[in-house]
Design goal:
Elements lengths: L1 H15 L14 H9 L5 E3 L7 H4 L4 H9 L32 H14 L6 E6 L6 H12 L4 E7 L2 E2 L2 E2 H4 L6 H6 L4 E5 L3 H16 L5 E6 L18 H8 L3 H12 L4 H23 L19 H12 L7
Parallel strand pairs: 1-2, 2-3, 3-7, 6-7
Antiparallel strand pairs: 4-5
């Protein structure tokens, strides 16, 4: 969790310096992605929203490749084609999140249903914010998941703001969790800033799905301490008092206090850890930032399994065309 917190801070700094184009941090919402990464098995699939992109790091995706996706250079497994801060990794079964609100939920349900039909012992995790639960995609996904008992865990990180729209303005439901019950899906409301509580709930939901019990809907109550993204100014719609009240429930600090009570860490060991992580992140950024942009000819990679004649013709033409001075 501390590693993710420090990484987010460095990425935001890079964006402010004009070294990367865009970044969406999960500051204050680290408990859910960390718990998901710990619960998910290698064969499980993750369909994140903006705040869960870091699940892939917990599941073993290299930090170097994660940072390269933010820069979009030749170290990026997506070859610089995706928007910044929209990472994905096939080796850790994580699909890129969508800038549109909610489409990853039916994608997760569809993947879960496919795995069920193929009799795989695997689960799909689909994520959204509170705003996405007011979208048609949410309704379609929940209906299908319940009707076909798809082995999927659908998690809503209710951070109380759909960018600048408060939850009370976009739904009249008393809670988000109650929406799941209307579809016949077992639903749980959990403290989304408590790593251990979130882990317990997600583990139980995943185990239930593996046993053939069908979907579970989880509402994780949390708060986005920072901006929605580097393109957002939350001071225009939130009060300082609200933010400060949620900072007292910070999931990273809460876990640290718990570990101190157990005697697992102290001030010195935590300081050493931060220094070690800072060096690791700094070294990765320095290495990745020096990489060149993707090669021009990579434009034609991963488009068709067998390129059609017109694409082959375009590739030959580009190969004969001198690159622009900047390339």
């Amino acid at each position: 969790m501390r590693r993710l917190r420090l990484l987010d801070a460095r990425m935001i700094l890079l964006q402010r310096q004009g070294r990367v184009g865009f970044y969406g941090a999960c500051t204050g919402q680290e408990a859910v992605p960390i718990a998901t990464g710990l619960v998910a098995r290698p064969d499980d699939w993750v369909f994140p929203a903006l705040r869960e992109q870091s699940v892939m790091l917990v599941r073993g995706f290299p930090l170097r490749k994660f940072v390269a996706q933010v820069f979009g250079n030749s170290g990026d497994v997506l070859k610089g084609r995706q928007m910044p801060s929209h990472p994905s990794g096939r080796q850790v079964h994580q699909v890129s999140w969508s800038s549109c609100i909610g489409p990853q939920i039916p994608q997760a349900v569809g993947a879960a249903w496919a795995m069920k039909k193929e009799k795989k012992d695997a689960v799909a995790f689909g994520f959204s914010g509170d705003g996405a639960t007011s979208q048609p995609d949410f309704h379609a996904a929940m209906t299908f998941a319940a009707a076909f008992a798809a082995p999927v865990v659908i998690v809503c990180q209710n951070n109380h703001w759909s960018i600048s729209v408060p939850t009370a303005r976009q739904t009249a439901s008393r809670t988000i969790a109650v929406k799941g019950r209307a579809y016949g899906i077992p639903s749980v409301r959990v403290d989304g800033n408590d790593l251990l509580a979130v882990h317990t709930v997600l583990e139980a939901a995943a185990d239930r799905a593996r046993r053939g019990g069908g979907p579970t809907f989880v509402e994780a109550l949390t708060y986005r301490i920072g901006a929605h993204s580097t393109s957002d100014d939350p001071t225009r719609y939130r009060t300082d008092a609200e933010v400060e009240s949620w900072k007292k429930k910070d999931p990273v600090d809460r876990l640290a206090r718990h570990l101190r009570r157990l005697g697992a860490i102290d001030d010195a060991s935590e300081k050493d850890l931060e220094a070690e992580l800072g060096v690791e992140i700094g070294d990765v950024i320095k290495e990745v930032e020096e990489l060149p942009p993707p090669a021009r000819m990579s434009l034609f990679d991963d488009v068709y399994a067998e390129p059609p004649w017109n694409l082959r013709e375009q590739r030959e033409l580009l190969a004969k065309t001198p690159p622009a001075p900047s390339h």
